[in-house]
Amino acid sequence: MHRLRHCRGLACVFSPSAQSALKLKNNIPLASCSGLVSYCWGSRSSHQGQSSYYYSSWRPRLRYVLMSLVAGTGAVVAYGLHQVKSERAAAAVPQTVSLPVYTQEEVMKHCSLDKGIWVTYNGDVYDITDFVAIHPGGNRILLAAGGALEPFWSLYAVHRQEHVQEILSGYKVGVLQAEDCKKQEAANLVDPYSTDPPRHPALIVNSLKPFNAEPPPGLLTDSYITPSALFFTRNHLPVPQVDPNKYRLKIEGLPSGTMSLTLNTLKSNFPKYTVIATIQCAGNRRSDMSKVKPVKGLNWGFAAIGNATWSGARLRDVLYHCGFGPEVAAKARHVQFEGLDCDVTGMPYGVSIPLNKALSEEGDVLLAYEMNGEELPADHGYPVRVIVPGVAGARNVKWLGKVVISEVESECHWQQNDYKGFSPGTNWDTVDYKSAPAIQELPVQSAITQPVDGSLVDRRMEEVNVKGYAWSGGGREVVRVDVSVDGGKTWHVAKLRDNGEDEFPAPSPQPGRAWAWKLWEIAIPLPEGAEVLEVVCKAVDSSYNTQPDSVPPIWNLRGVLCNAWHRVKVKVN
Amino acid sequence: MHRLRHCRGLACVFSPSAQSALKLKNNIPLASCSGLVSYCWGSRSSHQGQSSYYYSSWRPRLRYVLMSLVAGTGAVVAYGLHQVKSERAAAAVPQTVSLPVYTQEEVMKHCSLDKGIWVTYNGDVYDITDFVAIHPGGNRILLAAGGALEPFWSLYAVHRQEHVQEILSGYKVGVLQAEDCKKQEAANLVDPYSTDPPRHPALIVNSLKPFNAEPPPGLLTDSYITPSALFFTRNHLPVPQVDPNKYRLKIEGLPSGTMSLTLNTLKSNFPKYTVIATIQCAGNRRSDMSKVKPVKGLNWGFAAIGNATWSGARLRDVLYHCGFGPEVAAKARHVQFEGLDCDVTGMPYGVSIPLNKALSEEGDVLLAYEMNGEELPADHGYPVRVIVPGVAGARNVKWLGKVVISEVESECHWQQNDYKGFSPGTNWDTVDYKSAPAIQELPVQSAITQPVDGSLVDRRMEEVNVKGYAWSGGGREVVRVDVSVDGGKTWHVAKLRDNGEDEFPAPSPQPGRAWAWKLWEIAIPLPEGAEVLEVVCKAVDSSYNTQPDSVPPIWNLRGVLCNAWHRVKVKVN
Question: Signal sequence: where (chains A, B) (predicted)?
Fold first, then answer.
C-alpha cells in the first residue's frame, strides 16, 4: 500500500480551510493539484502537517499559463480568467429537463471552431466553443472536439475536481443518447496509468498518477548504493510499455540522417562503462522552500536523491559511431533527448544538455541499460535512459527514444519554461523564463537523515549521533561536511564515507569526475544544559563552494535548487 | 608614493596597546608582521582603522611553525618557545664593556653545531647555538652561520623589529673588529628588493617587500579589462630579473628528459591563443573575514581580483610537443610549476594543478607572454607566466621557470601547507593540512564597488546606484547578481555587463569556459524613510551555486575563500 503523503494526481486532498482560502472573488473555487497539470499555484501543505500557505497575490499571466499547461506538466491555473465568461455562460444555462438528446455522431460533427466545439462528459453534451480561448491548457482542448473528455481527464487527472465540473456545467447543451453512453463507458475504463509497475511500499508518495515518490530519509543513508526499489522516482507521464525487441533509439542531426539502434546494438557494439553517480531532482527539499513562501511543484522532502551504479554505452562513443565529426562540431552546441513517455497529444518528454558535456571523455554521459547491476527497472527508464552525471535529474531522460544533435536547446517545456532558477524577488508577474539558464549542474547539497526532526535525544547518551548525505554537481567532490548542534554557532567536521560496501568500491575520483555522493556521520557531545538542539549541516565541495545559510534569500517561485543548510530540531530529555 | 595601508614588510606598524597585548608572560614582546615571515599570528588590524584583534589562546605548534617559516612565508611565530631558554641566556649576558673583539675570520670558524653557530649583526657577534632549535624559521638560520644576519633579514624583513633584536641581544658574545664592520656595511647596502619595478601610485599597498597591493575598488569596475598597472599584485619574493635572451623554460617529467624552450620558441613555434580571464587571490576579502576573528595573512580588501586579456602558447600544445603521450598519461596526475622567484636558499615558488585541467582543450591553460596586448609587466611575471583560468591566483605562477609532469602534487609549501580551506571550528591546535585539498577552482564571488562603505546618499536622488563585479571559478558563468538595500530582506536583479569596450569584445562563453568576470549595476529606489541602507550583493553561477549569507560560518584560520555576501552600509541624508 502506498502512503499518500500529499496526493496530487488522481485526487486532491484539501482541508476545508484551504478550499475556502482558495475561492476567488466570484466564488469560483480554486484547488491545488500538481500531478500532470496543476490548476492553481501558490497552494501547498507540507507532509509534516504544517498549515497550508497561500500566496497573497494571485495574478497569473496568460502566456505562462498556456505554455505550462500545453506542456502537460504541473502549472498555473487560469480558471480565474474564466470568471467573466462563466457569468455570461451561467446566465444562458438551460435546465437539464428541457435539453435535447444527441447521438455521438451528431456530437462528432462539432469538431472545429467554425462548426462549434462540442464534447461529451459523463453522458452530457457541452458546447465549449466559447471556452476554448480561455482554456488553461490552450487549444489542446481541441483534441477532444467532437468526442469524450474522459480519456483526456484520466491522463490529466487534475480535471477531476468539483470546480472544474462546475465550470463545465455552464456549457451544457444536451445529453448523449443512452446507447452511445454505454459505448463510451466501456472505452473509458482504460486508465493510462494502469500499466505502471508495482512499487515498493516504503516509498513516500508525492503523486500517484504520474508516480512521484521518495524513500524515507532514514533508509536513504543505510547504504552507499541506494537500492533500486527505494530510489526516488520522478515521472512526468505514465510509464511507457517498451518491447525490448522492438525498441529503437533514434539518433538525429548527423550527416548520415536518422540512425536507428537496437537495444542489442547498444549492448554489443559499444564498450560497456559503469559509473557510480548520484541523481538528484532539482526540486529536492522543495518542502523546505515552501515553508518560507508558497512555491509551485511537487512537495519533495529531502530524499529526492539517490546513488546508484549505472552501466551502458557512452553517448560519445555512440555519437562518433553515428558520424559525429568536425563538420557537425562546427555548428552543434546541444544534445537533445526525447523520452518515449508521451502526453495525450503524442508530445514526448524532452530536454537537452550542452554538447561538450556529452562529448567529453570526462563527462561520462551514458546510455544506460543497467542500474545497480540489473536491467533498468520500469520506473527508472527501461530499457534505456541517459545518465548525465553531475547534472539535475530532469536531464537524465528515462525511456530514451531519441537523441538529436542540434544548434539549439530543446524547445520543450522542461528545458525552456521549467527547471530554471530565479531571484527571490521574481514573481509570476515578472518572471521571464528566457532570462535564466536551464538548470544543468546542481549546486552543493547536504542533508541530515539522523536524528529525525522533532525526535528526542536521551541526555544520558552524552553524545548525539548525526548522519546524512552530501553531494555536489559538476563532478565536484564533497571535501568536507560541517555539522553544528547549536544552529550554526560552532561547527564540527564530520567523517566522510566514500562507500561502505565491498561490492561497490568507489574509485578515487579524478578532479571534476566525482559523481557520487558521500555519506557522513559524526558523534557530537551534547552541549551542557541544552534542552533543544538545532542540528545543522553544510557541505563544501572541491571548488570550495558551500551552501547558503538560509532559505529565504534563495527562495524561487518554482521551489527548485533548495540547498541552504539543512536544519533539524531535537529535544534533549 | 605608495600609500601604506598596513605595512607588513620592511617595518611593522603597531599601536602601543597592540604591542603590550602581545607581550608574553615573561615580558618578551611579540609583534605582528606578515611580509615574508610572520612572527606572530592572531594579531591584525584592518585598514579601515578598526582596533586590533588578538587570539586568546596562543599555543603555536612547532611543526607548523617550522614548516611555515622554512617556506619563507607569513607564518606563526614561535618566539614564545624562546622564553625558557632566554631566561638562561639573559643570566649569562656579560656587559659590553668586557666583551672581546673578534675578526670576521674568527666568526666564520663557528659555522656548525659542533663548533657553535656564530653570527654578526650591526657590528656585534652572537653565539646563537642554543637558539637554533627554537628558531621559528627552523634550521634555515644555519645559512647565516659564521656570517652576517643582514642579508637574510633584508629578505625576511620581519626580523627588523625591536623584540627580535631584544631576543638576539641575549646571545651576544663579542664585537666585530672595526675593519670587518666597514666591509660588511658596504656589502649590506644591497637590498634584494632594490630591483623591483616601479608601481602605479594609485595602488593600495598591503606589503612593500615583497610587494602586495590592490587597486582602489572604485577604479576596479571602471573598465571591464583591468589596466595592467592597476591589476592587483601578489608577490611572495623579490621580482626576479630575467634576461629574455637567456630565458629558458624547462619541461620535466616527460620521456625525452628535460626539455628547454627559449622565449622565442614559445612565441614562434606554437599557435598564439588569447583568453580573457579573471584572476583572483584566494585571500581576496580577507579583511572581511578578520573582522569576525583574527586570521593569518595579508589584509586584502576586496580588490585582489582583476580581469585581463592574456596571450601565449597553450600549455597542452607545449606538453604534446615535448613528448606527452599515453605512456605518461597512464601515470601522471599533476603539473607542477616553479617560478624563478627564489627565497634566500634558492628554493623557488612552486605549486601544481591537476593534469586534466592542463591538458584539456577546454581548460585554456596558457604559457602567457602578453597581458592586455603587451609583454607581461615585471610584476605580473615577465617574461612568461602560467594562466590557469578559473583557478586561484596562487596557481597562476609568474616568472615561470619550470614545468614538471608528475604523479604527485607539488611538495612546496604553497601547495601543501598554504592556500587550503578549513572549517570554522579548526584552529592552529587542530589543523591538519593533509586533510584539505589545495585550493584550485574558487567559489562564486561578488562585491560592491559603489557606493563606498560609510558614504552618504542624497535622499533627493530617489535612487541609489549600485555597481560591482561578480565572478566564479571553474569557468562557471555568473548568470545573475541579486542586490538588496535592506540587508537581504528584499532583492533586485542587477544588469550584467559582459564587456564595455569595443576593443575587447567578450565572446559568448561555452559552458565551463566563462573565465571572465561580469561587471554589474543597478539603480534601486530608496526605501521610504530609510536612514541607513545595508547594501548587499550575491552572485549566482551557471551551476546555481550562490554565496553564503554570512562570514562566520565560512571563517577559516588562514582567511581564504571569503565569499559571503558583500555588505556596504551607507547613510541617507
Answer: none
